[in-house]
Design goal:
The protein is mostly helical. The protein has four helices and no strands. Helix content is 72%, strand content 0%. α2 packs antiparallel against α4.
Length: 163
Amino acid sequence: MPMSSPNSWTCQKPKLYNFSVRNILAQLFRQRTLRKILLSLFFLSLSFAILVVPLESGKPNAKIHNLNDSMWWMVSTITSVGYGDVVPVTLEGRVLGIILQLIGVVMTSSIIGSLVVQLHRKRDNYEWEKIYKQLEQISKSVEEVKKKTDFIILQKGEKKLKQ
């Protein structure tokens, strides 16, 4: 950031910091990219849950018989809970389960990664604000010293003229 003189320094002070969970989550979901990723993955997961019903229902030992079972399976698979009470028994259903597990990892990683970036930005803004305050204090001190030295130089100049 080029600075021509101390008087041209402009401080863009960051907003006040609110580290509440509600505020951080609100800021996270304001990010368009994260929102698009999460919504895309959610709707892909939802389509897998709908798709697994005809693949699994009617098969021997099937535990997914309707949309409610498949939604429960989808949520427990994405969140990596995997209770085991509802699981696919067909090869196609298990492949969808593997993909859902990967989707869950990507969703969790995206949220955690964005959260870390957000917290680092807040910390960096806080550090820059402290630096700007110190620069303002130094600038004021330099101006005061300049005024004092100008006054001393003027006094000495007047004494020489009187002699």
